[in-house]
């Protein structure tokens, strides 16, 4: 069951797509914003350090880690353990999660969370472009927040107030007050992300979890037109060595068109600057897909 990081990388590359030409611009407006109790000041989070894009994976665990009992929470257990007396479940390695996905025991969102760990370090600036119920935001805070290092910032946005409220509650329950300060919740369309991220900040990861809010109104879904604008913006703010991570769903009205738009966007990124990968369940046509856009160093 052991598999090296390189082997996983190779598998992913075989499943994937590339091509064409485009230019990356970085004209970004300097604008800080919003007044709400959930929103922190964005000042003072510049000077992002550049890190190697791939770090050595943590030690591989035993095959029992594929049990369906180990859920998305395993991603965050190590940090949340600091706030509770419950013994922490050992965090799974990226290889374990990828193998769990291949053997039908892990979900697309868990694979995405796991891959983020290869790109993001404490002190990084990241964007959750669709915060929804806050699970992705929480995982991101646990990756970047560290009070011993200057920086570490999550910009989490959604067009629904209820999403920000749910996310805020989850963060309050799961994080220490110091960790909580690393998140800025923003009621806005992700196509405007450049208006809130300071222009001198290089973003390490932009996360999209498309579709509708689980348990919410299915009419309030992400839409191809604004998702495309947001992907263009994400491309501009992303640092070299950074990743755009997209989980895309095709089972709802408009989902297939949105997926095709994302796939076309990825396929047109220039191969000399980008590595674009798709993970797809071939015999589950409506299963979510993971699309990863890695900006080369
Ligand atoms: C699948 S949910 C996200 C799940 C979330 N990441 C989580 O961990 O719970 C998709 C979210 O995208 C939001 N959304 C839709 N259009 C948006 C837009 N233009 N900008 C930002 N968020 C949007 C929806 O309101 C919904 O909450």
TrEMBL record:
It holds the Pfam family rRNA_methylase. Signal peptide: none annotated. Gene3D superfamilies: Vaccinia Virus protein VP39. InterPro entries: MnmM_MeTrfase (IPR010719), SAM-dependent_MTases_sf (IPR029063). It comes from the Eukaryota. Coiled coil: none annotated. This is tRNA (Mnm(5)s(2)U34)-methyltransferase, chloroplastic-like. It comes from Coffea arabica. The gene is LOC113688225.
């Amino acid at each position: 069951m052991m598999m090296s990081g390189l082997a996983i990388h190779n598998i992913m590359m075989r499943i994937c797509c590339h091509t064409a030409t485009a230019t990356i611009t970085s004209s970004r407006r300097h604008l800080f914003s919003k007044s709400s109790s959930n929103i922190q000041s964005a000042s003072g989070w510049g000077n992002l350090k550049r890190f190697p894009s791939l770090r050595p994976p943590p030690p591989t665990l035993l095959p029992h880690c594929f049990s369906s009992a180990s859920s998305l929470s395993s991603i965050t257990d190590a940090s949340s353990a600091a706030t509770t007396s419950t013994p922490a479940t050992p965090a799974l390695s990226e290889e374990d999660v990828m193998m769990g996905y291949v053997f039908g025991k892990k979900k697309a969102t868990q694979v995405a969370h796991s891959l983020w760990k290869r790109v993001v370090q404490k002190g990084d600036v990241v964007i959750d472009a669709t915060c929804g119920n806050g699970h992705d935001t929480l995982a991101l805070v646990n990756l970047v927040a560290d009070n011993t290092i200057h920086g570490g910032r999550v910009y989490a946005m959604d067009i629904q107030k209820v999403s920000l409220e749910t996310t805020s509650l989850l963060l309050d329950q799961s994080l220490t007050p110091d960790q909580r300060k690393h998140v800025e919740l923003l009621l806005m369309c992700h196509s405007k992300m450049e208006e809130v991220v300071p222009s001198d900040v290089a973003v390490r990861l932009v996360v999209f979890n498309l579709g509708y809010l689980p348990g919410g109104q299915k009419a309030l879904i992400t839409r191809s037109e604004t998702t495309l604008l947001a992907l263009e913006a994400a491309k501009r703010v992303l640092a070299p060595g950074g990743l755009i991570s997209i989980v895309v769903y095709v089972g709802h009205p408009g989902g297939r068109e949105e997926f095709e738009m994302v796939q076309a966007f990825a396929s047109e990124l220039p191969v000399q600057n980008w590595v674009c990968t798709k993970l797809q369940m071939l015999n589950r046509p409506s299963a979510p897909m993971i699309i990863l856009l890695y900006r080369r160093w």
